[in-house]
Amino acid sequence: MGYxxxxxxxxxxxxLLSVNCLPVLAEQQAHFHKNKxxxxxxKINSTVKSEQISERIRxxxxxxxxxxxxxxxxxxxxxxxxxxxxxxxxxxxGKPLSHPHALHKRIREQGRGHYSHWTTSTLYFSASDASDxxxxxxxxxxxxxxxxxxxxxxxxxxxxxxxxxxxAFSQRRIQPxxxxxxxxxxxxxxxxxxxxxxxxxLSSQEAILASILKPGMNAEEKSLAxxxxxxxxxxxxxxxxxxxxxxxxxxxxxxxxxxxxxxxATNFVVLSRKAGLRSRIWGLSGxxxxxxxxxxxxxxxxxDHQAIYRNEQGVIAGVEELSQHPELITKTPQDPIGSPSHxxxxxxxxxxxxxxxxxxxxxxxxxxxxxxxxLDQVEFRFTNPEYVHxxxxxxxxxxxxxxxxxxxRIAPLTxxxxxxxxxxxxxxxxxxxxxxxxxxNLKLESTDILPLVFISQDTISWQKLDGVLTENxxxxxxxxxxxxxxxxxxxCFVRLENPTKSDPAASIKQMDAELIFQFAPRALAHIENRNxxxxxxxxxxxxxxxxxxxxxxxxxxxx
Length: 559
Description:
This protein is an alpha+beta fold. It folds into 4 domains: 48-147, no CATH class; 158-196 and 370-388 and 520-559, no CATH class; 205-357, C8orf32 fold (Roll), CATH 3.10.620; 416-518, Jelly Rolls. 19% of the residues lie in helices and 34% in strands. The chain is built from 12 helices and 31 strands. Helix 6 (219-233) crosses helix 8. The longest helix is centred in the middle third of the chain and has 15 residues, at 219-233. The radius of gyration is 29 Å and the shape is globular. The protein starts with a helix and ends with a strand.
């Protein structure tokens, strides 16, 4: 009976619905379709290739093991002796050492060029004459010829929200090579947001917390979620800078991805405070950990050593409780990263120089929101980096997981650049990843009068840059200026000046820039064995009438 009454009512008022409601329904339907992600299944192209892979073993990555054996940290992942049989050959001054796949005991006791490429990141080896490879002046390289299938997929995104779906590759070893974003529009700029579906959003502190915290979590659950997040998304290595550069979680995870214990602990504190928790760091004897305050007491969280310690009541202990009860630490022989627990316990019990601090780091709310200006092309490379931002550790080896990228930008018509005075034009560069090197290329109308080029970080203090003229092309390097800046460079202003006091735009036919930057590969989603569904949002959505952004992914599949 109820259905019949409802049907009667609907039929009775159908004309009224048609007049008044259908426009609203149409508007809601249009809004739904506008915000519904466009799903793309890219075509994958394959090419079988073979190439020689070489890694120079520099003294900075070598440490003494035992006897004649030395240990080298490797950056290039390749099949190793531990899981299969390494195909790598170790060269000493260009000649192969004669004893590969050796037992570690034999390397230590006999030396004479015995070696083992033990894991993807570890080489045990000895010099042919049992000398110290850090000081003997000999050149060591680990080489192999690798046959692989290079996979390539490219697709055009014109929707404000897109899902890009690839199949899983569960039986193969995947090695990302590069990602390319290219703005094909000559008028519109886009800000792309790219992530793996279901992974945390690392673009801001707010986005990180919204990704990893769930409604209804109590203080301990929030603290554990933040601690586990940092455990998963960073690794221990010499920090790129001192001070608070790495204490910004967004820069720490997206630009670098590595640091010391104090960087991890301070990032925990920053995120915890953003989540509404009281938090602080403790400086121990050679180590730094974090604490969160809830339920009337402090509780220790150590993201660097991936450790928390619970007491007999199941409560996460604080630093002061651990100093009084080191057995909570030593009840297992090693901590989660393999450090001897009795040595870790010593850090807590040597209380004379242990100090807490609730200092607030001097950082801003950074947002990773790259702007692709018209015709910009950006390439992120996951292979061995050529350059790394290293201020306090300039002589140390490169971090094992780091990426280089290149931003290629074409200037609009020089007449469209900001005119700051009758004889000056200004070009502004701003990027969320730290600049490492760069160059400007100016195609001149004539070489009779060369424009002067200046650079600044703040438009107050300017430095003149010299260029190299080849025919009508003036190339100006930014390398030395970037290198000599006291801190990381994310932004700069280039000023073009005509020495004859006329507009420099009249003498420049075309101008482009190429800037090399650093990024953290873990933070930029790429093809892996599973979960190859990606999300890319483009803003502003209102600009989608443009030609859109072309995306290219390249990776290796190794059987």
